Amino acid sequence: MVARTHGYRFKSRKLLSKTPREKGRPGLFKWLLARYYRVGDKLAIDIDPVYVSTAPHKRYQGRVGTLIGWRGRALVLEVNFMGERRIIITTPEHVKPLNLEEFLKERVLGKPIIQSEAN
């Protein structure tokens, strides 16, 4: 018998699969959110199975990291994993703000909207 391989996505059928309603390429929402990330933000790692090459390892799925910088269009996150500090480099498709509602109110919708002088 041939030895079984243990590749990058080994034992991740449920973890890295989408429901039929979620399938297809994602919209621009995550890329537009990335414009508002600042160093020090808490981001949750949520792997998008569409983009395999830029995804962090499956062991970091659901972990919370702190944004410590940018590398081109990629994010550099610091994650505490089993008492050790780990550096994760990934793209914005695989992260989301820890509290999305607060983030949208504070950063995206909190910008002043120009009102018309008709009032």
From TrEMBL:
Sections of the chain in a coiled coil: none
GO MF term list: structural constituent of ribosome
Highest rank taxon of the organism: Archaea
UniProt keyword annotations, A-Z: Ribonucleoprotein, Ribosomal protein
Pfam families on file: Ribosomal_L21e (PF01157)
Gene Ontology biological-process entries: translation
GO cellular component: ribonucleoprotein complex; ribosome
PANTHER family: 60S RIBOSOMAL PROTEIN L21 (PTHR20981)
Protein family: Belongs to the eukaryotic ribosomal protein eL21 family.
Name of the protein this chain belongs to: Large ribosomal subunit protein eL21
Biological source species: Caldivirga maquilingensis (strain ATCC 700844 / DSM 13496 / JCM 10307 / IC-167)
Gene from which the chain derives: rpl21e
